[in-house]
Amino acid sequence: MAFTAPTEQAHAQSVRDQQTGGTKKSPLGGFGGLVIFENSLGRGTFTGVANNAAAQPLWTMSFSMWPNYVLSRDRGLLRLQVRVGMDINLVENFNSLNTVSSDARLRDLQLVVQWLNFAQYKPAKLSWSAFFRVGLPTSRLSQLETRVMQARVDLNTVWMPLNWLRINYFFSMYRNFHRYQNRVVDTADFDFPPTVRSGGPEALGSALLATGVENAQWQLLHGVGFTFFKSGFYAAFNWFLLQTYGYTHFSNDAQSSRYGSDGRNRLDLMVGAIELGYSVNRYFTIALGSSTLQSPLTANNESVRFPFWDTTNGASNRQTFYLDLVGSF
Fold first, then answer.
1. Does the reported pTM lie above 0.90?
2. Residue 304 class from Cβ within 10 Å (0-12 exposed, 13-18 middle, 19+ buried)?
3. Could you tell me if residue 144 is inside a domain?
């Protein structure tokens, strides 16, 4: 997954891309931004209720603030943006990310340069927007991955063939920079010393231990979105495919096979989101939706999963239902 999962990009996407923030003539000058408050319930909350052993309830509350400053409106909209956010699990299960109950988890801090509508072809009703982002490792997951920084470039193509239809194509490329190729834990955090092979590559020294989970070096994100809107109401359907590539070189030891070869450890994930929303005014939007994060293929790789609903294991919380309150200033 990206340091902000593609699910965040799917939620209220049709609204957030159209927010322009402050203007030079407003009381705030060129300052503006978004405030997003979200509550989400995992599908496991409703699955396995009759069998408590199978139930995995999950209720997460999230808060994000994206202040921005408009640099220019001469050719499109050029602005700077900072994105900060946090998540709190109000109801959790054995598979939750928290280490203690109801723990607040910071997301990665993002510094974003946005150039909205930098190019347009009006006869075909096409426009293009570009984003350049730098992610700093303020989340626990990034610290576990020993991530130093993430650089990301986005290109968003918008086509409006009708006054009530908006079609998007999203493309993003990520480059992650890590201290180590695998996730790392500190042995001082264990109640008993973990098992480490003498001279094995997992022993990093300084009481650090490499786990068997490899970090992602490169990530590609493709997405398509359809938004239907009229009189403040809208219905959005977004689909994303995230392709993850690990590092190409691994340290060998005496147990490594001489017949083995390094690989990229390719991993594919997809997100399907359906969202219904209403823009009360230019400053406030409410959205209700469902988002599903899962692999494109089933476990036996013989069939394609339905992208907008988890049809195989609802208790896994791969699917969530959310309520977004989005305010702009």
1. no
2. exposed
3. yes
Classified as helix, coil or strand, 142 is helix
Residue 133 maps to a domain: yes
Residue 196 lies in a domain: no
**Distance between CA 108 and CA 14 in Å, rounded?**
23
**Which residues are CB-neighbours of 68 under 8 A, at least 6 positions away?**
21, 22, 31, 32, 33, 79, 80, 81, 82, 112, 114
71-91 confidence digits (pLDDT tens): 998 888 899 999 999 998 888
Q: What is the CATH number of the domain that holds 56?
A: 2.40.160.40
CA–CA distance, 329 with 310 (Å, rounded to integer) = 36
Q: What is the pLDDT of residue 233?
A: 94
Residue 80: its pLDDT value, please? 95
**89's tokens:** 């699990």
Counted domains in the chain = 1
- Which one, of 191, 103, 192, 119, lies nearest residue 159 by Cα? 119
Q: Please write the tens of the pLDDT for every residue from 36-47.
A: 999 998 888 877
Q: Please say if the pLDDT value at position 231 is more than 80.
A: yes
